[in-house]
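Please complete every field before forwarding. Incomplete forms are returned to the sender.

SECTION A: IDENTIFIERS
Entry label: holo-369
Bound molecule: zinc ion
Molecule representation: SMILES string

SECTION B: INPUTS
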Amino acid sequence: MAEVPKTIKQWQMVQPTTFNKETKEKIPGKLEMAEIPVPELKEGEVLVEIAGCGVCHTDLGYFFDGVPTVSKPPLALGHEIAGTVVAGDPAWIGKEVIVPAVMPCRKCILCKTGRGNRCLAQKMPGNSIGVYGGFASHIPVPTIDLCVVSDKKGFALEQLSVVADAVTTPYQACKRADLQPGDNVIIIGATGGVGVYMAQTVKALGAKSVIGIARNPEKLQRALNYGCDAVISTIDKDNKTIVGEWRNFCKSNGLDNTGWKIFEVTGTKAGQDLALDLLSFVGKLILVGFGMAKSEYMFSKLMAFDAEVIGTWGCLPEYYPIVLDMVLSRKIQIEPFVEVRPMSTIAATFEEIHKAGSPAKRVVLKPDF
Ligand SMILES: [Zn+2]
Ligand SMILES: [Zn+2]
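SECTION C: PREDICTED COMPLEX
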């Protein structure tokens, strides 16, 4: 049994990357180790000893790109957490858990009408729970949303931290898309940190044909073993050519080219523009990725196509046990896409992933304070 600590050790974002307004000079962000007292746990709260926390693009957005956190720095970033309960409600002590990336308030109108994943009063570690985040030794969290891992089925607990965000976000996206067995699906960004799970999730839920679109031919080749039935590389192709390749795929496989569900996972302008070009009659475009780009589109096409464009955010905590089961039963493979590193590599790891843009594996940082 792990001990109840007196302090929490954290890698705090003391300052995000900023730019000098006059000289346009970049002032690099700063991460520093800090030690803070364990707070008094409120009714319904427990202290989780963190086994691992995944590095998400959202963290890099806060650190490098000026996306503001709700709680002002200094704070620990990180919202993809798995760990063990070490203090608080005795009924919870010793349980291994996944901490959902967004925890709804359970009181507001959105929560009461089944839309709690987009609750406006939701709490997100490493963003809106004060100073607390996943790049730390411990975190206090409410028990109501925790997803219990009763049998790890051979996984290390830290590997399962990706269930907290990267694997659950696609499941919520499928719910938003009303994905049904037999649906045909296109995934733009099928090889990225969330895209690899998007493809496996739609396949596990019974999608008929899954086309993965991305740049890197090697990663696309790998995607064929993980949910994709066909892949299209975008390298050196304009959208017209790519749309043509998709139409040819439909023709040669005897598939209708109407009613396709398109998941856009990159959040980039190129990806979003392509998604809009692929959207056709009674189709659905689901925006899973986030970016700051603006696109131009003839909105009346939606009317003429009887089509839909839908956003999706986070995942309801009530879906976590379903997604965890899909991972534990290997319907969704996570091992090839997760790399565990010591948490003390945080600064170098942030730098590396920021530069790489789309790393081959999700990095999970394991506390080594
Ligand atoms: Zn995230
Ligand atoms: Zn709410």
